[in-house]
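Please, structure for the following, as tokens.
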Amino acid sequence: MLDPADESALAGFQAVIRDASNATTGTRWEIADVENAGHRLVAEVEILRARPAAPGMLDLIEKAIEVWDELAGNLIDAYYARRTDPEEIGEPLVDAHQDLCVRLDLDLDEIADRLAGLLDRCPNGTVDPAAYAELLGEQAGTVGRAPRW
């Protein structure tokens, strides 16, 4: 069970994820809104990483990666107007995911399953399976996106 301070931190991060997911829901938003939402996700995930690892963190980081992947599509389309490359946000989020998998001492099968799920839910390329090669070893080659058809 998490102590109240940890519960509060997870709730705070959940609110940041929710805010980020709403960055493009209005009728008037700019690319800077997407970039700012991404930078806030990274800042909050770094704060979360400083805390002791808890299983609930992993689900939240995965949700943050999914939200960013959706937002990153806007930056990919607006390559001419953006100040932030999608990887500048995606890589720290994926690094935090890898770090937390290690800190929680997940077995390789669970890491591979979680990675496969992320790949299926992140069509804009935020998650690079090659980034998990060192962590998964030989098993890394077996993880990929599920066929779409």
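The two ends are 41 Å apart (CA to CA). The chain is about 65% helix and 0% strand.
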